[in-house]
Specification:
By secondary structure, the chain is mostly helical. The protein has helices spanning 2-51, 59-71, 75-125, 138-143, 154-160, 185-197, 208-214; strands at 129-131, 176-178.
């Protein structure tokens, strides 16, 4: 009877020790997996930070130390070092991304300022009036870059100055012509259409088509 009781106690103790050992083994495996994953993640993030030219000096050392600690069976220390390296690498990558975005924003602002400057310069170069010079005609005036940059838009000048231009083929030096800057797209299209379909230039004869255009 005493022998049987001793056997039962020994068996129960052995089973308890086995369960405890199993728990310890399971815990070690989970820690090892977590540490290995953290080290892998840290290496990946370090590589991204390096590609962005912003790898922090001590991060690689932390990764090496984490691997050494894991090989030495110091799983908790390895996990701590790997996570610290991962945090540093993430911070380095975020810093690099912020600097890159800042550069892009500055470039965009510079390009916008340059575009605004060019537009202002272009607007400043435009003329609201034009003083006729010897040898000028509406076709040539309209084609000037400071006017319309398109000779076919000359009817706009003709129409805007109908009070002083009787014959579109005949203008005089020192006449000050108004330049219409507010013509609608339809008005511009109509002017171009008239210029393309009008008869030949003939000084002294008022074209009927010109009069028809003015009356539209």
């Amino acid at each position: 009877m005493i022998m049987h009781t001793s056997v039962r106690l020994f068996t129960a103790a052995a089973m308890a020790l086995g369960l405890l050992a199993g728990c310890a083994t399971t815990g070690d495996e989970e820690c090892t997996k977590a540490a290995e994953q953290a080290i892998t993640d840290a290496k990946t993030m370090v590589a991204e930070a390096k590609a962005a030219n912003n790898e922090w000096r001590d991060t690689g050392t932390l990764v090496d130390s984490a691997e050494k600690a894991l090989n030495d069976g110091k799983c908790d220390e390895a996990l701590k070092l790997a996570n610290e390296a991962l945090d540093q690498a993430r911070a380095a990558k975020a810093q690099a991304d912020a600097e890159a975005q800042k550069f892009l924003d500055e470039q965009a602002a510079l390009e916008s300022a340059e575009a605004s400057s060019k537009m202002a310069g272009s607007m400043a170069g435009e003329m609201d009036t034009y003083t006729v010079e010897r040898g000028d005609n509406l076709w040539d005036i309209s084609g000037k870059s400071s006017i319309y940059g398109d000779s076919y838009q000359w009817p706009l000048i003709y129409k805007a100055n109908r009070d002083q231009i009787k014959d579109a083929d005949l203008i005089y030096p020192n006449q000050v012509l108004d330049i219409d800057r507010n013509a609608s797209s339809d008005e511009i299209d109509a002017a171009i259409e008239h210029a393309k379909t009008r008869g030949a230039w003939s000084v002294g004869d008022v074209e009927q088509t010109d009069l028809d255009y003015l009356n539209k």
